[in-house]
Amino acid sequence: MSKLCIRGGKRLKGDVIINGAKNAAVAILPATVLVDGISVIENLPNIQDVRILNEAMRSLGAVTQFTDEHTLEVDASTVYQHSALAECISKMRASYYLIGALLGRFGKAEVAMPGGCDFGGRPIDQHIKGFEALGATVEVHGNIIKAYAPKLVGTRIFLDVVSVGATINIMLAAVLAEGTTIIENAAKEPHIVDVANYLNMMGANVKGAGTDVIRIKGVEKLTGGKYTTVPDQIEAGTYMIAAAITKGDVYVRNIIPEHMESLSSKMREMGIGIEEGDDYIRVTADKELKATNVKTLPYPGFPTDLHPQMAVLLSTATGVSTLIESVFENRFQYVEQLKAVGAKFTVEGNKATIEGVEHFTPAHLHAMDLRAGAALVLAGLKAEGGETIVHNTKYIDRGYEAIEEKLNALGADVYRTAH
Ligand code: UD1
Fold first, then answer.
1. Nearest ligand 1 atom, CA 168
2. What is the gyration radius of the CA atoms in the chain, in angstroms?
3. Annotated active-site positions, please?
4. Is-contact 275 282, C-beta < 8 A?
5. Strands of 149-258, DSSP E
6. Beta-carbon count within 10 A of 78 CB
7. Measured between alpha carbons, how far is 352 from 287 in angstroms, rounded to an integer?
């Protein structure tokens, strides 16, 4: 398995281009099942989860073709299967979107249970509640979820927790249902709006995505079209933080600056320069960084997927910061790894208290999930006087396209080795 080796202490400078959003891509690809025609999806990130979903779509009978490394054509008119049971599917979180999409298209779905990063319990009761409200019967047999319905009929669904996955999944199941579905207490993340925009471009009638009430008027059929995936808010945030911890000067390009507001405002509070253009943010950090307090929340709050990266940034500030995780039960597995480079943490329940330190020391680190893996790379960029080795890069590669190339183009010294 490959490792990333980082000789830290280099000031990052230059431009980095952000790819399409992983969490939008992994929902839009299953959504193509609903289309009786060809979807051309542009600006897909070139990452493992996209490749797995491409294989899954093919196994369902879709005819797919990458026309370049970021564009996939999916002809789903040939889809005939309602079962997605391959082992690779059960390894990713987004496999659950195949349930909503197959149920919507065929009135039946059989999908291997979703996996993904381990942050404690990640129930899918709200997805199931939504499918049942639409008229489906849902059964869980071991590792397999089965859902079926003679027909799906629109209804009002109130989500008990604000869930990205449940909001999108119910939307997928409802676009071809009879009548109108109203999702209340819906999640508002940019990728929810993106999935709704994609579905609308294909002929669906989804209104209110991006607010907490989404109205879906069922239509008879979705036809094909071309769609460009929204930029990745989390990849952008990771490079913004990389610029700040290395006291750099970086233009993070091909983004929607408004999506970055919760991070940008925290970085400004810390004394970091944030200059916004139409589709870029310039990050400059030449002063001492001030400690601050951060709490993760559903969008537009501070994203839980930037929590571990933010922990690294707070570790480089002067003074004591706090970081509260309020979305997932357990997102602190990275703490022991960061302690190995010299970060000072205490964690009680869902709250970390972080005392800033001036220097990190190189160490051997082990990625345990995707975003924590990215945080360890950031720690390596800061650690001077040797090589920081980040093991288990498979987690990082699930969400970051060409991470070492992008960092090296900014002046970092990162290389990958197989041993
Ligand atoms: C998605 C993202 C993930 C991100 C998370 C929060 C994808 C593929 N993954 O994950 O990167 O960290 O949103 O922004 O897009 N919950 C329930 N019951 C449910 C569903 C969720 O109790 O049926 C709880 C979860 O345990 C969690 C909270 O709701 O505490 C939010 O989870 P959710 O927004 O659903 O996250 P995911 O869709 O799994």
1. 38
2. 21
3. 117
4. yes
5. 156-158, 180-184, 205-207, 213-217, 225-228, 249-253
6. 10
7. 25
d(CA 16, CA 13): 9
Q: What is the pLDDT of residues 371-386, one digit of tens each?
A: 999 999 999 999 999 9
321: helix, strand or coil: strand
Ligand 1 centroid distance, CA of 223 (Å): 29
Among 394, 213, 235, smallest CA distance to 305 is for 235
User: Which residue do the tokens 């230059």 mark?
Assistant: 14
pLDDT digits (tens, 9 = 90+) for 385-413: 999 999 999 999 999 999 999 999 999 99
- Asked whether the predicted pLDDT for residue 119 surpasses 60, the reply is no
Ramachandran assignment for 135, one of left (phi > 0), alpha (psi -120 to 50 degrees), beta (any other): left
Per-residue 3-state assignment (H helix, E strand, C coil) for 125-144: HHHHHHHHHCCCEEEEECCE
Question: Are 338 and 314 spatial neighbours (Cβ–Cβ below 8 Å)?
Answer: no
Residue with tokens 């994203």: 303
Could you give the angle at which helices 233-245 and 307-315 cross, rounded to 10 degrees?
Answer: 10
Give the closest residue to 30 by CA, choosing from 41, 46, 21: 41
Half-sphere exposure of 70 (CA within 13 A, CB side): 16
Is the CB of 328 inside a 6 Å radius of any atom of ligand 1?
Answer: yes
Identity of the amino acid at 278: D
